[in-house]
Specification:
homodimer; alpha+beta; four-stranded antiparallel sheet; 20% strand; DNA-binding
Chain lengths: 249, 249
DNA sequence: CGGAGTTTTGACTGGAATCAACTGCGGTGG
DNA sequence: CCACCGCAGTTGATTCCAGTCAAAACTCCG
């Protein structure tokens, strides 16, 4: 029951403006989106809505997104943020579990779910990548559960900032790290299970203590990463043994 | 293309807990564990520990388990409970994300992960079941995120009780439902992001209002399921279209 | 400059945590 | 049998962290 449709699926659409260049064979999940057209999503626009038929899988190409759930009485929860390279919709065979909205003008590619699944079906490597992908999503969700169940406001914000650093990757290995915050304070609050006021207060408190500096509205500089990591508690306990903490007063 | 017809398998219970029925072909993930020996795990004993090499996959046969994470300073979080029929360890290719401990004397079967993966590799049907399984785990985790981020103590307890009813299955369709609680108040508290005292207070409050009755220590009767469902808010918003809101005063 | 939306700051409130005492129950053994 | 213990759970008094309400300050626009 093998179908050697790799060639037919790739068609002969040229890869347009992709940062990746040529794609001889889909060796990663991302590569599957190579031939797809890049769509522009303006700020606030949704990629898809909660409970929609999950008929498409998306790759984020540029910008940033939030995944939103809303309770019947209006309470809002953001279950995650999406950044370039992320794939969304792969783990929901039925309905999308939340609405995905662009935080800033963004770009994405889409693939019909049947195409995505067919491709994954053909390749052992892609299959294990998919499982690994779902596993990573799961452990992120569990980390969030720990944060919401047992961390206080400061610990939540500290964990959040560090997770952003980890995902966006620190460019230089300088002691201070600049982090872009494409989301608003409200988005952070709804992600961290806090209010906008509490998030704001924690930011100023951390700034006064010299842990961070809030340059522009949507940018934070982390001045003392190790101190912040202490605040964040066990933030995803890697068994790193290079703990080496700087006890600067 | 041949994509359809992989959804034909219904996930839920067929003849389970039968003492060693015949297993002609593994058609469900559970069937894979059929030939394995059933191990007895006594109360408090762990099936595996957080950060252990995830070299085994388990099927819960009898009893009940909790999945525990502990922060460095001792704060405890229970990320989930496991009941007969559940499969655990399938979604963690690397390390187990938490410690799984028996709440009561329990039984389980184990399969080496390589065997599990090899079997799944052979069968298209098992593969899609695995994805469905991971997807269900994911949506449970997200439901927990919503609960922890935005629900108050009463709503959390109400949601919890209803989720137990949903999982254990109401035996009779009588208006009142007896639910067994194999876990202690502390377990519930650590699952719901509350303290033991708050859980206790909410139980008595719900009992005084006639929503539930606490018969024995480890048993609750739900007297008014629909009232409790209202309290639980949007508890996993099925897209029921019989919304029909009563705008009483 | 003005106006709307976002963020910050302040005063006060409230719900859950904390601290502490008590109850009830099951087991154990005198 | 019952006195004793220990544990799980309940109840009460008080505290405190984050929420709420309100207003001011800042930004980004035209």
């Amino acid at each position: 029951m093998h179908i050697q449709s790799n060639l037919t699926l790739r068609n002969d659409l040229r890869v347009t403006t992709g940062p990746g260049g040529s794609h001889p064979l889909p060796t990663t999940l991302r590569d599957l989106f190579g031939p797809q057209a890049t769509e522009c999503i303006e700020q606030g626009q949704a990629l898809f809505w909660q409970s929609d038929d999950a008929s498409q899988v998306f790759e984020i190409v540029a910008g940033a997104f939030r995944t939103v759930r809303v309770l019947s009485d209006g309470r809002r929860v953001i279950t995650g943020f999406l950044f370039p390279g992320d794939i969304v919709g792969a783990g929901s065979p039925d309905r999308y579990p939340g609405t995905v909205e662009a935080l800033v003008p963004s770009k994405a590619r889409r693939l019909p779910r049947r195409r995505f699944e067919a491709e994954v079906e053909h390749s052992h490597s892609l299959r294990s990548q998919l499982v690994a992908h779902l596993s990573r999503e799961m452990s992120a969700a569990q980390e969030q559960v720990v944060l919401l169940a047992r961390k206080n406001a400061e610990e939540r914000v500290a964990s959040f900032l560090l997770s952003l650093v980890r995902r966006m990757g620190r460019s230089s290995q300088s002691p201070c790290i600049a982090v872009e915050l494409p989301m608003t304070r409200l988005d952070m609050a709804d992600y961290l299970g806090l209010t906008i006021e509490t998030v704001s207060r924690v930011f100023t408190r951390l700034a006064k203590r010299g842990y961070i500096a809030t340059a522009a509205r949507h940018e934070v500089t982390i001045l003392r990463p190790t101190a912040l990591a202490l605040l964040a508690v066990d933030d995803q306990e890697d068994d790193r043994d290079d703990v080496e903490i700087a006890w600067a007063s």
